[in-house]
Amino acid sequence: MVYPDTFKGFQIEDPKHWTEFKLNELKPKPFGDYDVDIKIQACGVCASDLHTVSGGWGEQHFPLCVGHEIVGTALRVGPKVTLIKPGERVGVGAQSYSCLKCKQCKNDNETYCVHQLDTYGAVWPDTGIVSQGGYSTHVRTHEHWVFPIPAGLATNKAAPMLCAGLTAYSPLVRNGAGPGKKVGIVGMGGIGHFGLLFSKALGAETWVISRTHSKEADAKKMGADGFLATADKDWNVPHKMTFDLIINTASSTENFDLAAYLSLLDVHGRWISVGLPEGSGQEVKAQDFLSNGCLIGASHLGSRKEVLAMLKLAEEKGIESWVEEIPISAEGLKTALTRLHNNNVRYRFTLTDYDKCFGTE
Amino acid sequence: MVYPDTFKGFQIEDPKHWTEFKLNELKPKPFGDYDVDIKIQACGVCASDLHTVSGGWGEQHFPLCVGHEIVGTALRVGPKVTLIKPGERVGVGAQSYSCLKCKQCKNDNETYCVHQLDTYGAVWPDTGIVSQGGYSTHVRTHEHWVFPIPAGLATNKAAPMLCAGLTAYSPLVRNGAGPGKKVGIVGMGGIGHFGLLFSKALGAETWVISRTHSKEADAKKMGADGFLATADKDWNVPHKMTFDLIINTASSTENFDLAAYLSLLDVHGRWISVGLPEGSGQEVKAQDFLSNGCLIGASHLGSRKEVLAMLKLAEEKGIESWVEEIPISAEGLKTALTRLHNNNVRYRFTLTDYDKCFGTE
């Protein structure tokens, strides 16, 4: 069996062996009226992929093919598709379904639809088929979650924008990042470096907040207006009540002195977390919020409209993701996941050379 | 020594004996150019008073006279006072000083000025004098924190608005409570009942969320559109993602299932705490915020502008605080504090009959 009946992809079969990828046949869901089949050309490697295959986020439907920062070519489109044309270069991110009928969906909050399904690891309610991600030959996705990639963006640089980029971009625009605002980006990894790039592109004064100074030079190259290292003594003191918005991309809550970070916020400033750390949470006290009336919250991906606006902004401003390319293969995936696990990536891996691995059909 | 050299008030001398009030002479700070001396007629009894005298909020400057929901008559005003005239009926709340020069002060966020001082228990930096509250004959207060009481409001009903009312009103208006919005008020005590009254007056659909149904009839009388009792099985399930704003007035975090409350919020809805519970905080997880991208925060009192707007709204809409009156005396204070400690008050005590206790001078 071959496409369009089956796809092929690298799956993890057991979280105990989360670096051992097997090339298996994948059974896609039936081709629907609004579906787009995409021949994949590149895929970013997201921390979600690691949390998922290693079991850090709990039980999953193994065997599983992860990857949700997908760029490829639209091969064919369903009879009711109007948003995508065959042959177009398109992207798919971390979400692949919502009802499109509820209040959330109608308000560009489809991310928060209670029927939302993830690009991989979700069970399609009608067929029981488990969705499979982009470490594979193809994806089949409803047009609403398929995004034309502007001509000015390179495939390998656009791919990580579809999850990491959007995850940073949406809370920036939803919380007013722009001229006259001071934004902090906590954690300079895949999402964090996009937070810096997009916050600057939106016109906000942007500071990076990291544990050490090791990434300061890179941050400055990306346009950071300032850099705080939390290992420095009294690092927060001179900057109290000066930030309007802080996007927290840290993926761990260990030894995290939240109160020190919150003290940076101006009155009613906001701390928005976009990471989903493994393990337990952290203690908060009403006192931590009282000196500035700040707010903490979280943000989950973003809307189709925001994806399109983000890609347009990236093209217009010439935003260049900082990626390291790794040709896709079982060995390449092992390298990528292992290095990601060791925080050894600046700042995102994009898997490439899909045709070499899988052929051109 | 008598007024204006000294005031008289009921002080607690030792938090171990927090119901034993002693009538002592109080030394006021020197009369400043912007100060107003007020002969007190009534004072609300705030949970802060209890937390303070009983040691629940930690070390205090004893002996201490508490009380910060003060209504009285302006006796004399300093040479630079323009906002208050002698003879006016005026109120004083929980804050009595800020610099009035910083960014926060200039943006109607004087509550968050780093130089802010409380009406009682604060040390005046220039003299070392400890500020004393309204269980007393007089207060001396900078005009910015002295508020004319509209003629349509009864003294005993206006008093508790000056802390409890404002504490509820400010986060309502700052977070958009009004027509078309659905607001929840958690906890129906002194602050909570004002939350309900003001949220309704602002035009929002307003629900009360309480542990049991014991206060449901009262809530309905005050205009509540709905009532949820968290002791009921699956109390939150039918109401998920329907609230825009929840004001949390609960003064305890024990057995508090925050995630269940947060599930009530619509996308980017806000949970604003105004209580300051004793003891430790509570654990939050990024997961608790992800299904709706909600925010949690806190609010501290409100601005002068908000006090004046609140009092105007209360007069216009005929808002009646639900108060129980207790004539001020050592015995009356013991009764009030003990009953408050036992949550046995519907919904606020106002201390009255000051002239009977202290005389008319």
UniProtKB/TrEMBL annotation, chains A, B:
Family per record: Belongs to the zinc-containing alcohol dehydrogenase family.
Cofactor annotation: Zn(2+)
Subunit composition and interactions: Homodimer.
GO biological process, one term: alcohol metabolic process
Record-given protein name: alcohol dehydrogenase (NADP(+))
Enzyme class: oxidoreductase
InterPro entries the record matches: ADH-like_C, ADH-like_N, ADH_Zn_CS, CAD-like, GroES-like_sf, NAD(P)-bd_dom_sf
Reactions it catalyzes: a primary alcohol + NADP(+) = an aldehyde + NADPH + H(+)
Pfam family, one: ADH_zinc_N
UniProt GO MF annotations: alcohol dehydrogenase (NADP+) activity; zinc ion binding
Domain called Alcohol dehydrogenase-like C-terminal: residue spans: 190-315
PROSITE patterns, alphabetized: ADH_ZINC
Keywords for this protein: Metal-binding, NADP, Oxidoreductase, Phosphoprotein, Zinc
EC numbers for this chain: 1.1.1.2
Sequence ranges assigned to domain Alcohol dehydrogenase-like N-terminal in this UniProt record: 33-150
